[in-house]
From TrEMBL:
It comes from Kyrpidia tusciae (strain DSM 2912 / NBRC 15312 / T2) (Bacillus tusciae). This is Transposase IS4 family protein. Coiled coil: none annotated. GO terms for biological process: DNA transposition. Pfam families: DDE_Tnp_1, DUF772. Signal peptide: none annotated. Residues 13-103 form the Transposase InsH N-terminal domain. One of its GO terms (molecular function) is DNA binding. Residues 180-409 form the Transposase IS4-like domain. InterPro entries: Transposase_11, Transposase_InsH_N.
Length: 433
């Protein structure tokens, strides 16, 4: 818990319940930063202490809570807001050079920020019994507004030498059946997130260059969860993600290693014109790339989609029921049909397509809707934490800034929960009246 200065002319009781200062109070009171502060103060030694470590740290947190896009913007706020300076513990506004040195020190202690993030995740898991049961994974593009590197790649104060070009393709189908495609390109970074889909709060993150593959970093995120929060992987039941994470190894790993049911959309990877494939061991049963299974009537050759009969965990198979039996439709060849009693589809037929929750089922569609939780977290990062328009340059500084923003988000949520304000847990900014 942060140390908040108790000043003669200031009382937390005087602040607005939904104001910016109230959110700052939540962060300062519930952020587990004691170890980091003690370490930074010890590292400073017995040198000049014009701007105490705790005061500098508090002012940095205030800059995030109050959505200041730059250090200069924060310094201007501190210059005109004596109450904020008092809350932070500052007697004077720190110089730009002081903030540069402090940021450099924080970047050198990035692992402490990660540990603070982990402590907050653990605390929320203890406060919220359902926290971590439903997980969602996605990446967020963070464009760099700095100049692109020149061929010489010389540092000149304007360029971002760590950023890289990223591409993300979105595809869909219109109501008339036609397909659409949107390609987004940017120069910058990627924030890779796993969030609790029910409470819309982050539980794991990494920051990479914009060119990093979502699938490869998806495995890294699972590694991070296994290392830092193994208890959450044991609790998790479902992991949702968009088709950027459509990978048989990732899907298999979720279920085989952790018992998590993957709900991940599929990409179109089959050859052009290949609509279905024959189910091994059968002559009249086929499946498509979306996981739908069809049977052909041996008498008329008519094709019908088979009904879902559930997942058999012990067998590792999906049950498919004869459509005549499930829907009551007429089938002239039912008596001689080899799959009239249904069919079992082993997940091993194609681990990318067949998953414990059948893709064409209502349950799969219901679970997939939870994926939007990541999009809402990403939106809050843009709107409430200024990532839509920022001046951050360099991978180390981007990792620090993302880590701090996510810690503030979690600390604010933890404060709401502990103070019995769970309905306002996602309230990061002042509502506009």
């Amino acid at each position: 818990m942060a140390i908040i200065p108790q000043l003669e002319l200031f009382s937390w009781e005087d602040i607005e319940p939904l104001g910016d200062l109230e959110r700052l109070r939540l962060v300062l009171e519930h952020l587990p930063d004691e170890a980091l502060m003690a370490h930074l103060e010890k590292s400073r030694g017995h040198g000049r202490d014009d701007y105490p470590v705790r005061a500098m740290w508090n002012s940095m947190l205030a800059g995030i809570v109050f959505q200041h896009p730059s250090i200069e913007s924060l310094r201007r706020e501190l210059s005109r807001n004596g109450q904020l300076r008092s809350i932070c513990g500052l007697r004077a506004v720190p110089s730009a050079a002081a903030y540069t040195r402090f940021l450099r020190s924080l970047m050198e202690h990035g692992s402490w920020i990660e540990s603070m993030f982990d402590e907050l995740v653990k605390a929320l898991s203890e406060e919220l019994p359902e926290f971590g049961r439903r997980l969602a994974m996605d990446s967020k593009a963070i464009a760099s507004w700095a100049s692109r590197p020149s061929k010489e790649k010389k540092e000149d104060g304007r360029r971002d030498l760590d950023a890289a070009y990223g591409v993300k393709t979105y595809r869909g189908t219109r109501e008339d059946g036609s397909t659409w495609e949107k390609v987004v390109r940017w120069f910058g970074y990627k924030l890779h997130l796993v969030v609790d889909a029910q409470h819309e709060l982050p539980v794991a993150y990494t920051v990479t260059k914009g060119s990093r593959s979502d699938v490869k970093e998806g495995h890294v995120l699972l590694d991070e969860l296994e290392k830092r929060h193994p208890e959450m992987l044991k609790k998790a039941e479902v992991l949702t993600a968009d088709r950027g994470y459509d990978d048989s190894k990732l899907l298999s790993r979720c279920w085989d290693e952790y018992g998590i049911k993957p709900v991940i959309d599929t990409r179109r990877l089959w050859k052009d014109g290949e609509q279905t494939r024959l189910l091994p061991g059968h002559t009249n049963v086929v499946y498509d790339e979306r996981g739908a299974v069809y049977c052909y009537c041996p008498e008329t050759g008519a094709r019908q989609q088979m009904s879902n009969g559930g997942f058999e965990k012990d067998r590792g198979t999906l049950k498919k029921v004869c459509p005549a039996k499930a829907y009551g439709i007429t089938c002239q060849g039912r008596e001689q049909c080899p799959v009239a009693g249904g069919v079992r589809v082993p997940l091993a037929v194609d681990r990318r397509i067949f998953t414990p929750i059948a893709r064409e089922s209502y349950k799969w569609a219901k679970e997939y809707r939870y994926r939007t939780a990541v999009e809402r977290v990403n939106s809050r990062l843009d709107v409430s934490f200024g990532f839509e328009r920022h001046t951050i340059r360099g991978l180390a500084k981007m990792r620090l800034r993302c880590g701090l923003a996510l810690c503030v988000m979690l600390a604010m949520a933890l404060g709401r929960v502990r103070e019995k304000q769970q309905e306002r847990m996602r309230s990061l900014v002042r509502s506009v009246s």
